[in-house]
Structure formats: structure tokens, C-alpha cells
Amino acid sequence: MAKAERAAVFDVDGTLVDTNHLHVVTWWEAFRQAGHDVPMHAVHRAVGLASTDLVAHLLGEDRDTDQDAAISAAHKALYGQYFDRLPALPEAGPLLRRLHGDGWAVVLATSAGGAELSALRRAIDADDVITATASADDVDAGKPAPEPVEHALDLAGVPAERAVFVGDTVWDMRAGSRAGVRCVGVLCGGIPRTDLEKSGADAIYADPAHLLSSLRDSPLA
Asked: What is the biggest distance separating any 2 CA atoms in the chain, rounded to whole angstroms?
């Protein structure tokens, strides 16, 4: 097959798989077990950051950092209970298949890795059209730093000006903007439209199904 001339880079949690609220509840419980009362709405706004960054964002720089690893491990264990039933968002798999058929290299850029990433890919059920995956394990800095998106572009062998990044959080939009790619936001992660627009979204859709039905008029046309 000829090398793709353009890349569609996708965040996964909240963008292709309906997991953000599972993350909220399991992070909330992990913090509670460590003696921290963190409001769920604050956790929701932080979802999409890599684990260490999320803990730092919510507990502050003056926290007892000795707790960080235990909190992250607790979240991982709690969230792992859902691996066998993570729900794909509507038309997530068909969207990726359509883009692949249209000649896009489809690349995932996610803070998930290992068994969690495998569970997410099973939920999407489109492995045969995913060119590559850039996980948090592959870069020094997670979103909103541009590195995850830049790494995804390197894997696809496509420059930023021929790429589009689709995500559901302000961290995604900032990472994509800093990497110099056009950003598309989806509302299915629960973050308000205005927040995504302020953070760099060029276009916004309800969910993968809405983007698929609107492809002809989208940045992914």
C-alpha cells in the first residue's frame, strides 16, 4: 500500500471510547483512599493529563509526592476492573475505517499504555486500520505538551501541516495547537464547547458518529 500523505491523529479516552466518567470515579476513589477529598468536577477537568501530571494538577506542587505512585496505582487497579467492558463511542470504529479508506494514516495518541491501551483498542475494534499508536510511555512529556502529537506524526511520517488531531479535552487542543496541527474537538468527553474553542479547536462535533456524518464539510474532508 502507498504511504499515506496525511494523518488523522486521535486521542482515545473520551474521544473514541466512553471512559471519561469511569476515570473520574476511579480517580476520585483513589484520592479518597489516600485521604484526599477532591471534587469530581475537578477530576473531570483534569482527565486527559498523564497520571503524574493529573495528581500534581489536582493536589498542587506542595503535596506529599511520596503518595503519587500509590494514588496512580490505586486508580490503575480500580479502572482495570472495567477493561472487559469499555464502551466505544458511537461509530468510532467505522470513522477510523472510513478515514483509512480515504487515504489517511490513522494514529492514536493517548496517555494509556499496556493492558489499558489493549482494552481500549479492543473496544474500538478497528486495529486493522490503525497505522500506529503513540502512548505516554513513548514521550517525556504528556499533553498539553506537543510531544505526544509530534511523536504520532513521526510514526506516520507526515508533517504537521498535513495532519488533523481529534480530541475531547482542553489538553488535547493545546497539545495539537502547539504541535502545529489543525484541531477538531468532540463534546462526548463532557468538556464544554467554549473551552475547546478557546484552547484551539478549529471545528467541533458531538461525537465520532457526528464527525463521520459530517466528514465532507470537516477538516478531515
From this structure: 54
State whether 25 and 97 are in the same domain: no
Q: Is residue 1 part of a domain?
A: no
Q: Can you give the residue range of the structural domain that contains 24?
A: 20-81
Closest CA to 208 of 102, 68, 60, 99: 99
pLDDT tens digits, one per residue of 13-23: 999 999 999 99
Same-domain check for residues 68 and 164: no
Q: How many CB atoms lie within 10 A of CB 70?
A: 12
The domain that holds 199 is classified in CATH as 3.40.50.1000
Give whole-number Cα distances, 187 to 149, 155, 167, 176, in Å. Answer: 20, 27, 9, 17
What's the order of all strands across the beta sheet hosting 130-135?
130-135, 104-110, 6-10, 163-167, 182-186, 203-205
Please indicate, yes or no, whether residues 194 and 106 belong to a single structural domain of this protein.
yes
**DSSP for 46-64?**
HBTB-HHHHHHHHH-TTS-
In this structure, the answer to whether residues 174 and 193 fall within a common structural domain is yes
Number of domains, the chain: 2
Per-residue pLDDT tens for 101-159?
999 999 999 988 899 999 999 999 999 999 999 987 788 888 999 999 999 999 999 99
Q: pTM above 0.70?
A: yes
